[in-house]
Amino acid sequence: MISPRFFSVLALAALSAVFFPGSVARADLPPGLAAPKDANTPRTDAPVLPTPKPKQRPQIDTARADQELRQIVADQQAIFAAAEAAGDKFDPDNFRSQMQQLTQRYDRLLLINPNYVPGCVAYGLLLARIGMTREGAAFMYKANELDDKLPVVKNQLGNFCAEEGRPLEAYIFYNAAIALDPREPLYYHQLGTLLAEARDIFLKEAPDMWSRSKIDEAMQVAFLQATELAPGDWRHAYRYGLSFYDLQTGEWEAALQFWETFETKLKSGVEQQVCRLHQARVLGELRRIKDAQARLDSVTASALTSQKMPIALEIDALRKKGVADQSDAVKDDAIKDEPPAPDTTSAAVSSAASSSVAVVPVAAAPIAAATGSATQPPDKSEKAK
After folding, report:
1. At what angle do helices 252-263 and 234-242 cross, to 10 degrees?
2. Cβ partners under 8 Å of residue 285, min gap 6
3. Are 326 and 333 in contact (CB under 8 A)?
């Protein structure tokens, strides 16, 4: 670190004359304004100076700026819609040219209205969407400085910090977004994903605040909250189901109950068979080898062959190790206890930390990425609200 330099009175006067032409040195001040030589000597002749008024930001022609922004955003949405509809005929050069034109229009808008918060937010979202995350974050930080009550801005800054490897900062931003808009499921989904993916960093950098059990609990509660707030969005419920694999202590009975209940909310075919893959995997963890094999055999979709193979190998490995099959023992216990028929429409799924919140049944949409072990989370670049 470079140590600070101390300037003489003459050097300070010279710098003031260069950078602040209207300023004067102490020797040029009128006697009534010059500071006393003895700091302890009270002054009785110093005049009372008027309190300066706070700087006023320049007024923005909001109506005109709003109209221009609406047109930019409409054109932007049309460009992205056309790009998605083009399929194999997508022209990257033309798309790049259109993006350049959009950014130029945003630049002109914000040049005229530098403190126009909606413009900063919309521009930041666009830049993040096209991969210019740092540039987009700069506009989000400016918007946050101008108005710190915008949850969409907090969420985007959380995304930026998470991608930059600063999860503790991201955690603060995500929680700020949730506090501002507690009914938005996306923010809970983002928070749960952060806790799952950056768990080791939380434990290393904030051991006094976090333990593994606390992280697991907070993660599952976040995904569960997203599921309850958006019961029609299968992505949140699916990610909640995947969170059982992230737990330090296996909650396999709860996991099995979730996947069996979730299957009933999906269309027959590939969607339900994806759930059976997870059921087979969980049954293997429960050492119910025969049941796991039967569930796996019911997965016949060719699109799931590559996902089916690792689970088959795991089941085979259990047999080779001579692990005792618990399938019959579970059935015997069920017959002995004779429990009432479960209500599959309101099955309670406890979280890893003994959360008493029940999962809301999800009417899932088609699983576009059903061939993977996980789905893509909701698009982090959301529209400005």
Report:
1. 150
2. 250, 252, 255
3. no
Instruction: Answer whether 195's CB lies under 8 Å from 218's CB.
Output: yes
- Per residue in 152-201, pLDDT (tens digit) is 999 999 999 999 999 999 999 999 999 999 999 999 999 999 999 999 99
pLDDT tens readout for residues 338-372? 554 444 333 333 333 333 232 322 223 323 333 23
- Rounded Cα distance between 183 and 170, Å, is 19
Residue in 290, 294, 282 with CA at minimum distance from that of residue 256 = 282
- Residue 132 to residues 63, 69, 103, 135, 382, Cα–Cα distance (Å): 29, 20, 11, 6, 15
- Contact, 109 vs 116, CB < 8 A? yes
C-alpha to C-alpha distance for 316 and 300, rounded to whole angstroms: 18
* Burial class for 54, CB neighbours closer than 10 Å (0-12, 13-18, 19+): exposed
Mean pLDDT over all residues of the chain? Answer: 79
The DSSP line for 109-145 is HHHH-TT-HHHHHHHHHHHHHTT-HHHHHHHHHHHHH
pLDDT in tens, 253-312: 999 999 999 999 999 999 999 999 999 999 999 999 999 999 999 999 999 999 999 999
**3-class DSSP assignment, residue 368:** coil
- What is residue 348's DSSP assignment? -
What is the token pair recorded at 182? 């507690």
| Among 125, 177, 172, 171, CA closest to 150 | 177
Q: Phi-psi category of 354—alpha, beta or left, where left has phi over 0 and alpha has psi -120 to 50? A: left
Looking at residue 289, its amino acid is: I
Q: Measure Cα distances from 291 to 53, 298, 306, 333 in Å.
A: 77, 11, 21, 15
Among residues 39, 143, 27, 129, the alpha carbon closest in space to that of 79 is found at 129
Q: How far apart are CA 246 and CA 258, in angstroms?
A: 15
CA distance 373 to 200: 22
